[in-house]
Write a structure and sequence with these properties.
- The chain is of the alpha/beta class and 597 residues long.
- The chain is elongated, with a radius of gyration of 31 Å.
- The protein has 17 helices and 25 strands.
- The N and C termini lie far apart (76 Å).
- The chain has three domains: 130 residues, no CATH class; 239 residues, P-loop containing nucleotide triphosphate hydrolases (Rossmann fold, 3-Layer(aba) Sandwich), CATH 3.40.50.300; 129 residues, no CATH class.
Amino acid sequence: MKNIQTEIGEIISVSGNTITVQLSDSIKSNMPVIDGIVYKIGQIGSFLKVPLGYANLYGIVTQTGASAIPEKLKELVEQDYSKLDNRQFLNMALIGEQVGRKFERGVSQSPTTGDKVHLVTIKDLDIVYGGYDANNSITVGNISISESLNAKIDLNKLVSRHCAILGSTGSGKSNAVGVLLDAIAKKEFKSSRILVIDPHGEYDSVLKGRSNVYKIRANEVEGEKELQIPFWALPFNELMSIFSGTLSDQNRDYFKTKIEETKINAAFENGIDIETELITADTPIPFSLKQLWFDLDDFERQTYIERAKPETITAKKVTGNPETMISNEYQPASAGGGSPFLNNYAKGILGFLDSVRLKLKDSTYNFLFHPNEYEPNLIGMIKKDLSNLLFDWLGSEKPITILDLSGIPSEIMTSISGTLLKIIYDALFWGQNLNIGGKEQPLLIVLEEAHNYLKAGEKSISSRAVQGIAKEGRKYGVGLVLVTQRPSELDETVLSQCGTIIALRMNNAKDRGHIRSAIQDELQTMVDLLPSLRTGEGIISGEGVKIPSRVQFYKLPNAPKGSDPKVSEKWIEEKKIDINDYNKLLSLWRNQKLKED
């Protein structure tokens, strides 16, 4: 009797994974009541089951109504419209199979025409959404069709197979990321490690107590730590891109050679165990950029008593200082062509060297060029090496490290974020056989606002680094979570590598098209639901879940900073403002600071 209650129709067509169902004429309503619970037949994204002996096949509704009518039947209908009298159709895609109390994704058998199709009840859903290993899953919200069911995600597959969290501004994307990270942190794994690259400083307050926050101009009272990225860890091309001056190819090679020579000397001074032949301008070895600038600048300015004879260098008018970035000055060359003579061997790079000096003196770049104990002295010696930096970021007892990049100048955001990823990935690649390598202690990297530094078609270091992690990272224990509001701007290769897709409300048709191409063919019609999702609601599909699910994410008590300000509340407040407030604003602006010292 119970089976008759839930029966809604029969299969009339099977095409691969797509099943066409003709609803029974005996259905009294599209919203039957079974055991006191109202069910809605044919809702897109809802589930149906096909009993086959000891097994139940489960499918997800992808089309209903006229669009679900089989093509062959449409041909008959064109000849005789009466053949459609009182007939209703829907299409569903098979997604899993239940044997006993166990549900698994994928099907081992296929139904045939005439097989009966049934509603999926709450008890069925308990089996479908249950069965997750408590140690290997996290709970992120409730299943939208039944708030009594928890939405769980398989943690192993979420991390190892990569994930993308996609949604328009205001869709609840930052909250979903926060819920995901908080759920992992609450598991209290002894050796978990998550690294969040956060361009806007949204997560500082969300994960308080469970994370270390590194940012420029850190507030030590709040427990924040100063973000330091030593310039000498940057590859040569990225270091050069920071400076505004231009170099010819010949002078670029000259500069590269000088950096290599300086790194070789600094490796000896620091007692670094490395073969000289392995040192290149890209090798992360400390060197003094101040001393290199001073030496190159000095050579350009020299004048000689006798033409083309460096040993006859003229006396200095001003003695410079590499520490304070003051140039040596020599007797000026004679305007009439006599002694003193110009240095004919000079490379003509004073303009570029001036741009280097300006950047070294710019306080907004202190995190890079003056990173405290990571800054080399004039002979290249350092107090702390990259191992200390990696230990701080990846070796903490707290499970989450947030690298807040909000204070980094926008023009070098791509280079810095890419360099961070390359440093971390290279470290785990070369350390893969150690107990701190990715295989023994996997790392999850979360890239917030990924479209800002991972644009399609770009060959930047950030794009190359993320592509490398997406393609090879799982072999070395590095997982990736891409978070973006513009999936259409992401590199398609990277998006296609994400095994789990969490799609929140998405209004832009172009962006929905990219999401559609990233999920399995039979479920692509579910993407059309995205504009109608509520704030904080998303569709999770892929390897992290047993079955594609529409989920209402939990709401975090500490909302991310990215949350929209409540305009009416802010405008209704009475504020006493005078010219001094704007004087402070101007002072902060001119001094490139976000708050007063």
